[in-house]
Amino acid sequence: MAFSPNPLSLSVPDPAFESWLRDSGYLELLDHRTSAAASSSAPVSSSAAATSSASDDVVSSITGGFFASLLSRLVTVSSLLTINPFSKLSADDFSGDTPPWTTGFFGNCDSYSFPSSSQQASMRVHENIKRFARNYATLFIVFFACALYQMPLALVGLLASLALWELFKYCSDRWKFDRHPSMRKFSIGIGQCGTAVLLTFLNVQMALFSALAVSYSVMILHAGFRKLTQSKKPSRGR
Question: Which Pfam families match (predicted)?
Answer without folding.
Answer: PRA1
